[in-house]
């Protein structure tokens, strides 16, 4: 579930609107990026290897103008060119929980997607938000795709196509209507979607959030706030 938000929601988003959820979970982690990247990493995947030098990928905590006031819009941003028309922009972070335990994860998010060229120009171009987790380190790997080209892909199952859902990531839905030169901030949650993950023997889980883009434009994907709720499965 995603929706555009007004500026007054910012103060309530992570701290006041989830009291019922707070009382039911075993662990809660909240990220607002006011103090930097908070140990999150970022990258892109799903591109031909020979395009790598032209992607111009940048990861930063610079403020990007959107529908929230600038003084309330700290965030983590990743940007890059998408000349091929198929690119996955993502953030990941390792968290430590109890080893070998199965958890239900629920997410609340505040994000945006800035298009350097302005609004989406083609009805066939899409932009999907995806959220999930794995119990191993997400890394890029080189694979040979159907056209016999070498591609760099992420070693997770996020869904083969932009609009697909994978075993490791939920497809939250299209967000292209909110993407623009000055994008709309988007809030939402996954409370109505069951997502379960078992931590590894060291108690490690890697959280993932990203946008799967079919838009041939420079895109900046911004993560302004994220809360992750962990409920142990008995």
If you had to describe this structure to a student in words, what would you say it looks like?
With 234 residues, the chain is mainly β. It has helices spanning 10-13, 19-22; strands at 2-4, 27-31, 41-45, 47-48, 58-60, 76-80, 87-96, 102-115, 127-134, 140-144, 150-154, 169-174, 186-189, 196-198, 204-213, 219-232. The chain has one domain (2-7, 46-222). Helices cover 3% and strands 44% of the residues. The strands form 3 sheets. Strands 1, 2, 5, 6, 8, 13, 14 and 16 form an 8-stranded antiparallel beta sheet that branches. A 5-stranded antiparallel beta sheet has the order 3-7-15-9-12, with no helix packed on it. The model is unreliable at 6-17 (pLDDT under 50).
